[in-house]
Amino acid sequence: MTEQKFPTGVPEQPLIQPTQFDPEDEYRPEPEPEPLPPSWMNGSFRIGIHTSIAGSYLNALESARKLGCNALQIFSASPRMWQGGSARIADVDAQAFRARRDELRLGPLVIHANYLINLASEQRMLQTRSIQAFHDEIVRAMALGADYLVVHPGARGEATMGQAISTIVESVKQASKRASMGGLQILIENTAGMGTAVGARLEEVGEILAGLRNLSVGACLDTAHLFAAGYDIKSESGLASTIGQIESSIGLENVPVFHVNDSKIPLGGRVDRHEHIGKGKIGAEAFARILRHPRFGTAGPEGLAGRAFIAETPIDDPGDDRRNVAALWELAGLKEQAPEAEKGFSMLTAALQKKIAIHRKSEKKRKDSAETQRTPRRAEKKARTMKSGIRKSKAKKKKRG
Hints:
alpha/beta; two-stranded antiparallel ribbon; 10% strand; globular
């Protein structure tokens, strides 16, 4: 019986040897879209003030809103004590903060690091503690969705300036090594030049940034510190000269935040004492010149989008904070564009002012009491020294005789 063949309807195809893989045949997914810049980087002017986190991180946001700000600076924890453990922020608190900030369209968010951190310290224990504390600052800043983290360089002690700058660079590298930085940028702040503080000269800040070129870093320049360190930003010619020095040592494109503070200290006084805007040695006219200068602006082609001007002015009386923010908007020539402030609001309430006054009075009384107790002991010691001197003098005379 012969084998019967049934037509398949499909023409026979010759066998083809597999060809080499063509990379062009690989599936290529569409690239992820570039994230849009935050709303505060739209070229609008950004003015803020340092607000308190007392009670809740959310309180800082509400204070900024009520004071007529569209940017703000906060501490992420107490700035004058070492934090126990890592002092992390609870996820629920961080999420609530980020959500409310988005609603209020506040930005940028600047966090100022702990004052005790000394990244330049030559004392190994203090340096290690500072590195850990700064690492924790980075972690908290990331949790809150901060844009910038400002830190003072520190004091060099007996070290040379070159040694101190190397120590600062290494300390920042160590602190950021185990941290996911994301969009956070570290800003090195200039100093007034008190004692052995590093960063009074713009060249010193520039050298630190150069050593950290592989990290996301920049500078925060404080007007009161510049003035106290000897940079004459008060006069028109002095401001022009200072801008030239900023450009040559740091680059204005690397200065996204200015701390705008008047100074109680005259030019070159090398002491850090902030004053209300227009009430100090720098003066209102100079601040108007600074805030309206195209190189310090937030719009192109000369300005930097998103640049913020943050006040760290004192609050001596209720309403000082609101008045300083209003002064900045007015001196910038943007009073009509300023967010509406809540009439009568101040972070310093009358009740809090009374509480602070009582505390200061109590502290003064304690210090006076301690001084009173020391005075008799000092008098007694002085009397013993005098008697000893008299006895020695008599003994010498007797010996000569």
